[in-house]
Write a structure and sequence with these properties.
It contains 16 helices and 2 strands. By secondary structure, the chain is mainly α.
């Protein structure tokens, strides 16, 4: 809520503008997603002192002249579709840090905002944004579950782009949802046993369990290793801990499978 309190002082408080700009440029996609959810309740209409932003009429663009890009990024979360649209356009030339804000607008209720955000995201399918797309996989998962534009072709396009950037998918991330999605996408282009080796050292056991139990390529590799190693079928272990122990036992020691 402090973030949105600062937003109410954008017009006449330079320190508020600087603080919001700093937050937006350093926020994780998970934090941006949370801010977007909170904005629906906490983002007050008044952001220029006593002047309120109308939710039904276009805004005066003079209000946002001179605002730093990070403050404009926060305004893409505002309740006013007119303000979101104007603020979004100002992010068109910003770098990878702005991607989470663009992705959120790909599910905007306003069709024109949604279409423009989708266009801006697709122009970022370049090497310099690969890591940013990987870090934002939690938002991509959210888009996949939505009925509006972002959940269809765009999600598939993002996933296809990332499959071609294995080096980005192999990076570590603090968010288990991001790691889960990265493992899933790596299965499209990497040997299943290599993905399994990485999953074995993941601190979240549920990630390993889901891949061995529900991912056919990984389970086939797992079963194949067992048969080659012991010459007999394997039983499905129950529970993440048992799966991890069993998988570690079956995998060949050292080298690549």
């Amino acid at each position: 809520r402090d973030l949105f309190t600062l937003a109410s002082r954008l017009a006449d408080d330079a320190s508020a503008r600087e603080s919001i700009d700093s937050w937006a440029r350093s926020a994780t996609p998970r934090e941006v997603l949370a801010a977007g959810a909170e904005a629906r309740l906490s983002f007050n209409r008044g952001i220029w002192g006593a002047t309120f932003v109308s939710l039904n009429h276009p805004i005066k663009t003079t209000h946002i002249v001179g605002l730093p890009a990070g403050a404009l990024a926060l305004l893409t979360l505002h309740r006013s579709g007119y303000l979101r649209e104007v603020a979004l356009e100002h992010l068109s030339t910003e770098g990878p840090w702005a991607l989470p804000f663009l992705l959120l607008r790909c599910d905007d209720i306003v069709p024109s905002v949604r279409a423009r955000a989708t266009e801006m995201v697709t122009t970022r399918f370049v090497d310099s944004h690969a890591v940013a797309f990987m870090r934002a996989l939690r938002i991509v998962v959210t888009l996949r579950m939505r009925a509006r534009g972002g959940g269809g072709p765009l999600v598939k396009a993002i996933e296809s782009f990332l499959v071609g950037h294995a080096e980005a998918l192999a990076l570590e991330d603090d968010d288990p949802v991001v790691r889960h999605e990265a493992f899933r996408l790596r299965l499209r282009s990497e040997p299943p046993t290599l993905v399994l080796r990485c999953a074995l050292v993941d601190p979240t056991k549920e990630i390993l369990a889901s891949f061995i139990v529900w991912s056919q390529p990984l389970w086939v590799a797992y079963a194949g290793l067992a048969e080659r190693t012991r010459g007999s079928p394997i039983s499905v272990p129950t529970g993440p801990a048992a799966i991890k122990a069993s998988a570690a036992h079956w995998l060949p020691r050292g080298g690549s499978a």
